[in-house]
Amino acid sequence: MPSMLGKLGNGIASIMDPLTWLHSLRILHFYSYKHVREKRKIKMGRDQVFAPNVSIANGERITLGHRCHVGERVCLWAGNETGRITLGDDVMIGPNTVVTASDYGLVEGTPPVFQPKNERDIVIRDGVWIGANAVITAGVTIEKGCIVGAGSVVTRDLPANMICAGAPARAIKPRPKRTGSST
After folding, report:
1. What is the pLDDT of residues 48-104, one digit of tens each?
2. Residues 120-154, buried b or exposed e (16+ Cβ, 10 A)?
3. In angstroms, what CA-CA distances link 22 with 8, 26, 32?
4. Is residue 82 within 8 Å of 58, Cβ to Cβ?
5. Of the candidates 33, 72, 75, 164, which lies 20 to 30 Å from 53 by C-alpha distance?
């Protein structure tokens, strides 16, 4: 019984702690500036499925076509100055995927935080499906109908209507053709 009273006392102390309430405000603030405010800046087509925990940077440089599906915990990070992210119609992005139009330079002797950023546009064409946990790097174009396998790292352009996977991602095989009619 004493351990139950101790747990109850700890719970009450946690609720009464002003730092608990301050932390709640910090979480709300973070959600607002990484999702709510930035989502309003995105140019979006109609009929979107957009998870409530997508992380967005520089929404004014992000464009989504119609019927896009952006999964849970996806990061859509456009560049601070020029790097744009453009998604065509009917694009699906699986959970935990990172799409970033900016990266840091690699000059020896300069810490990464002080490197100049390299910003290049990302274009994801119509009907692309990006599997969970993929990383799409700056300067990449993924052509129409391409499927990017889960966990892939896309560092170069990918061709249309191909299944691509790996780190770095490469074309594995063409998508199967539709056969016959279903009656």
Report:
1. 999 989 999 999 999 999 999 999 999 999 999 999 999 999 999 999 999 999 998
2. ebbbbbbbbbbbbbbbbbbbbbbbebbbbbebbbb
3. 22, 6, 15
4. no
5. 164
